[in-house]
Amino acid sequence: MNRLSEALMTVLRQAKLGALNALQSGTANSLSLYDKIAMILANNNFHTVDLTGPINGLLACMLAFAGYAKAKIKELSAEFIKWVFEQTLKMVNKIAYRALSSVG
């Protein structure tokens, strides 16, 4: 999960200031953080360089972590990216639950 978080931060840094400004305004507009990040990654207008490769790589790693290693990335829509985030977070929650259950 740490590697996935670092990769996400790297992609957002590569998108430069337009993405950061949009992220700040989006969280103030009652969108969830993941909604806004998905919108930024899907919207090429925020990117100062072509991030298609890094975004596809990040999503592929997130899908593999979440148990969807064979899934194909067909589009970089905000809805799809948000779904990938949700699946990844579900897996994190499942792993955390198992870890806590084994301790108690």
Could you explain how this protein is built, in words?
There is one protein chain. The protein is mostly helical and 104 residues long. The protein has 2 domains: 1-30, no CATH class; 31-103, no CATH class. It is built from 5 helices and no strands. The chain has helices at residues 2-14, 17-28, 33-42, 52-65, 78-103. Helix 2 runs antiparallel to helix 3, helix 3 packs across helix 5 and helix 4 packs parallel to helix 5 (78-103). The longest helix is centred in the last third of the chain and has 26 residues, at 78-103. It starts with a helix and ends with a helix.
Write a brief structural summary.
This protein is mostly helical and 104 residues long. It is 72% helix and 0% strand. α2 (17-28) runs antiparallel to α3 (33-42), α3 (33-42) crosses α5 (78-103) and α4 (52-65) packs parallel to α5 (78-103).
